[in-house]
Design brief:
About 25% of the residues are buried. The chain folds into 2 domains: about 1-35; about 35-160, no CATH class. The chain has a 6-stranded antiparallel sheet with strand order 1-2-6-5-4-3, with helices on one face. It is built from 3 helices and 6 strands, in the order ααββαββββ. It is α+β, with helices and mostly antiparallel strands. This is Lipoprotein.
Length: about 170
């Protein structure tokens, strides 16, 4: 057999294996599914945002602050829940001011975002704000679990962001 006839299939095979290996590394690092490394590193930055510490004086933190990266949708998140006894409108008014003072821009308002009976909840944010954070757009949601029939008397703040733009309120 001639060396040229052997070298060509070996070279093509080696190149093919290199492409398959590179594709596998890309897919495992979040290229096809899940969070990218950059978004995983973004979660602690979101958790340190001062807006998550801001709350009306009559409210108290409930549980610990949480953060992570949503593998299903591929975005970083951080949040905090609070118990409240003041009127809901006062909570919304507080965050309208506090978020604006912290540089957040109001993106949407839906004071009572309860889903219709039997339908899926698409957006449960009563307030949604946006702000540049770490080279991407972060979204701050103020939401009430009671709108979904859960945990009346609590509200949540959640910040989401992704370097590929897949985050939202």
């Amino acid at each position: 057999m001639k060396p040229k006839r052997v070298a060509t299939p070996v070279l093509v095979g080696a190149c093919g294996m290199a492409v398959i290996a590179a594709t596998g590394v890309w897919a495992l690092s979040g290229g096809l599914y899940g969070c990218t490394g950059a978004d995983q590193e973004l979660a602690p930055t979101l958790a340190s945002l001062s807006v998550l510490d801001a709350h009306p004086s009559t409210t108290r933190p409930r549980d610990d602050r949480y953060s992570g990266c949503d593998e299903d949708d591929g975005f970083a998140y951080a949040g905090q829940h609070y118990r409240y006894t003041t009127p809901r409108a006062d909570v919304l008014s507080f965050y309208s001011r506090a978020a604006a003072e912290d540089g957040w821009r109001l993106a949407s308002v839906n004071p009572s975002p309860s889903p219709a009976p039997g339908s899926l909840a698409v957006d449960t944010s009563a307030l949604c704000f946006e702000k540049p954070v770490a080279g991407t757009t972060a979204h701050l949601a103020v939401w009430f679990p009671g709108d979904l029939g859960d945990s009346a008397g609590t509200f949540g703040l959640e910040v989401t962001a992704s370097h590929d733009g897949s985050a939202w309120c």
